[in-house]
Design a protein that fits this description.
Elements (H helix, E strand, L loop, with lengths): L8 E2 L5 E3 L7 E6 L6 H10 L6 E3 L5 E3 L5 E3 L5 H4 L2 E6 L12 H17 L16 E2 L11 H6 L1 H12 L11 E8 L2 H13 L4 E6 L2 E9 L2 H13 L5 E4 L14 E4 L17 E7 L2 E8 L2 E9 L3 E3 L1
Parallel strand pairs: 1-5, 3-7, 3-8, 4-7
Antiparallel strand pairs: 2-6, 4-5, 9-11, 9-12, 10-11, 13-14, 13-17, 14-15, 15-16
The protein binds zinc ion.
C-alpha cells in the first residue's frame, strides 16, 4: 500500500475507517460542485464530516486527505468506499454542466493512471453499470448528480486515456516544429490578403487565431536554422517576421521540454492567478501553446502549474 507521488499538498483530515482487508480495485471520481482550492476543499470535507482520498484543486494541484490504506467517506456507501480510491475534482465554473478545465482533466488522468499502476489495476473499465465498470460514479450509490454532466460524459475518455498510458502506448510529444510568423492582424481579411501574397510567392501558409489576432505563418521547419533562413529571406522582402514554434504564434521564443523558465504573467491556463514560490521552473510537457511547469523542491520535481507559452520566458 502506498500513496501517490503526484501529491503536492497533504492534509490528513481523519473522517475515514479501516478497509477491513478489502483490496483496492475501484476508483470513484467525484466533482466538487464548486470552484475550489485544495485548502477550501479540505475545509468543506471537514464541515460535511466527509473525506476523499485525493482532491484536485481548480489550479490542477493534487492533494491528499486520506491515506490510501484507509476507507474514505466519500460515496455514501460502505460497499464501494471500502474497495475504492475516491477523487474529488474541482470544477472550473459553477453550475451549468459543471465543467472541469483541460489541465485539471489531464492531472486527473495522470493521477488515475498512477493509482492503477500502484494498486495492480491493469485496465480501467466503464460501461455505465456497476457490474461492468471499475471506474464508478457517486450517483450510482446516492441521490446526487455527482459527478455532474461534464465530468460524467468524460468517463469513457478518461478510461481510454488511462488505458493508453497503462499499455505504454502513449504517443511521445511531437518534435518541435518552427514556423515563421509573417504578420498578425485584427481583421481576418487583412491576414487572408497577406496569405494570398505569400502563396503567390510559393510559400505554404497557415492562418491561426491567437488571442483574437489572426496570425499568418509559414513553415513548418524541423530545423530552426531553416526557419531562420526563410525568415531572413522574408525580412529582406520587407515583411515583419519572427520565428515561432508550432502554431501557437504567441511567442517569439521556442521552448522545449526541460527548458528552465520564469513566468512573466502569473496566471495559469484556466485564468487562475498563481503565486510564485520558486526562482525558476522546468518545462515537463508542451501541448500546443501551453506548457506544464515543474518546480524543484528538495531535489524532487513537482508539477506547479500549466501556463501559456506567452506567459513565460526562458530563465
Ligand atoms: Zn460525489
Amino acid at each position: 500500500m502506498s500513496n501517490s507521488s503526484l501529491v503536492q499538498y497533504r492534509r490528513l483530515i481523519g473522517n475515514c475507517s479501516s478497509r477491513q482487508g478489502n483490496k483496492i480495485d475501484r476508483i470513484v471520481i467525484h466533482h466538487c460542485a464548486g470552484v475550489l482550492s485544495l485548502e477550501t476543499l479540505g475545509n468543506v470535507l471537514l464541515r460535511r464530516t466527509g473525506s476523499c482520498t485525493y482532491g484536485i484543486g481548480s489550479d490542477g494541484r493534487i492533494g491528499q486527505y486520506v491515506d490510501e490504506s484507509m476507507r474514505p467517506w466519500t460515496t455514501s456507501s460502505w460497499e464501494i468506499d471500502k474497495r475504492a480510491i475516491t477523487i474529488e475534482v474541482s470544477n472550473s465554473e459553477n453550475g451549468g454542466s459543471w465543467p472541469v478545465s483541460d489541465y485539471v482533466m489531464r492531472r486527473l488522468i495522470e493521477l488515475v493512471t498512477d493509482i492503477c499502476k500502484r494498486n495492480g489495476i491493469k485496465k480501467l473499465y466503464f460501461d455505465g453499470t456497476k457490474a461492468g465498470s471499475n471506474l464508478h460514479m457517486h450517483k450510482w450509490y446516492a441521490s446526487t448528480a455527482c459527478p455532474g454532466p461534464y465530468l460524467g460524459a468524460k468517463f469513457p475518455y478518461i478510461v481510454e486515456q488511462v488505458n493508453k498510458k497503462l499499455a505504454g502506448s502513449d504517443t511521445p510529444a511531437a518534435d518541435v516544429l518552427y514556423r515563421v510568423q509573417v504578420g498578425a492582424f485584427k481583421e481576418k481579411a487583412n491576414a487572408q490578403a497577406l496569405e494570398k501574397k505569400l502563396k503567390a510567392d510559393g510559400y505554404s501558409t497557415y492562418l491561426v487565431n491567437v488571442g483574437g489576432l489572426w496570425k499568418v505563418q509559414t513553415g513548418a521547419f524541423k530545423i530552426k536554422s531553416n526557419a531562420n533562413n526563410t525568415a531572413a529571406i522574408l525580412k529582406a522582402a520587407g515583411y515583419d517576421v519572427y520565428v515561432t514554434t508550432a502554431s501557437n504564434g504567441s511567442s517569439a521564443e521556442s521552448f522545449k521540454v526541460g527548458d528552465q523558465v520564469v513566468p512573466v504573467n502569473l496566471v495559469n491556463t484556466s485564468g487562475v492567478r498563481l503565486t510564485q514560490y520558486d526562482n525558476v521552473y522546468y518545462i515537463s510537457e508542451i501541448n500546443g501553446d501551453k506548457a506544464v511547469l515543474q518546480a524543484e523542491r528538495s531535489g524532487k520535481r513537482i508539477t506547479w502549474a500549466e501556463m501559456y507559452l506567452k506567459d513565460i520566458k526562458k530563465a
